[in-house]
Amino acid sequence: MVAGNPHHSQIGRLRPPRHRAGPRARRWWTARAWLAVGGPALLVSGALLAPSALFFPGALFWLAPLTAAALAPALGYALLAPARRCRTHAWEVGESAVYAASGWYWRRRRIVALAGVRDVAVRRGPLQRLYGLATVTVTTGSTAADLRIAGVPEAEARTLAERIRTGVAA
Amino acid sequence: MTVLATADIRRLRYAPLTFWVWGGVLIAAGTVWKILKATGVKPWRLGFVRRLAEAFGGDALWVSVPLALAAMTALGVAGALGLHALTWSRYRLERTAEGGLTVRRGLSGKDAVSIAPDQLCGVALREPLLLRAGGGASVRAVAGGLGNRDQNRTRSVVLPPSPKAEAERVCAGVLGEGEGVDVAGLRGHPRAGLRRRVVAALGWWVLPVVVVLAVLGWLLALPVLLACAAGWALAVTPVALILARDAYRGLGHAVRGRYLVVRSGTFGRETVTLARNAVQAWTFTDTPFALRAGVVTLTAAVPGGEDGYRIRDMSAAEAAEFAEYAAPGIVREFLIDTDA
Lengths: 170, 340
Fold this sequence. Notes:
heterodimer; A: PH-domain like; B: 340 residues; PH-domain like; six-stranded antiparallel β-sheet; 10 helices; 24% strand
């Protein structure tokens, strides 16, 4: 069995993809989680609790538990999800198929036959560009066979896309 | 050119076996309400509507409520029969010499859907809950090139609700397999699948309602809500357990000749037969809970129909090898070589 990564050793003889997500990808996921979920949740809670504490302290006894109940999952996501994503995230181009693993709660390992690949593209979002990362998207004739490999260092993304293209041509 | 099925008035008896009998009436009522609202008519100002509402709310609720339900059912059944007659009159399903399909239907008999042989990647035998209870089934072709997902769902229907035996015969005919692909005796799924279905059924249907009612009853000091919570738990738990068990027993998968057979669902039981060489990708999906239970959902990607067909909660230990066996060459190079 594969050493050191219990999250990959469970599906029969399927091994994890070779290339793992790097520390830059982890920083990007962390930034994204705080920007999109953790930060806004904290802001809204602050905006609710601070005026309440200053002007309506009587309301705190019910407002504080409600806010905490809403804040807990958001903070939990921002704290735990990036690390979990980083553990799962990996990719590999083989002789006849491309293999990618992703997800934080639902873990998805997808293996796509190169013969069915129609299009390969490299995309970079504004936040990804800050971290020097890119997303490789693979389009096929079936939406259940399409692939998005996010958080790949830019130079590596270009070679990855090129390798998929040559694999398709071969 | 072989004719696989033609219009048959006796199929009408399967038309009302769907929850849309009630859903359709609700949708129609909603549409009427919207039209009235848009035209500025206020229904409660009309005398007969008010008299009807007063009569309904009168002292004989135990008569008026069942009567209203019966009227709604009758209206829905009439609607279902009418819609079936409109859609499936002059129906004719043909298989061309090359292996493609042509479905003709509609009042004019000129609405036609053609499926080219290279776009056909399988066939799905569909048995929604009520239709299954009535011993019926309908058939959809798993095919690409029929438009977007919604268009595909309407255009790919090759047989309307019919007796199950006929549906099985049409499935075999669509695939061009004389005696049909055997979908009996599929490999069942691990026991953990039953536990997961029971937990999901209780967790989604019983627990939330009971918790909300109980908390409200406690906060508002209304014992009647506590009684409602207990009543809901007692009434719904057995139904949830029966459905969970049915869902688990429905799970199955197998390789039969050139085909991969997958069965799942309880409200929408579906037995899908896919050409093994149409599979383009495999996806293994799990959650921390599935991981602990030792199960994984394996999705076969084909270029047609719903695109992805899931083998839910199969044994994680067997999944990779099954994928390699069912559609060789895709996962092979990512398997750990234990023979060496």
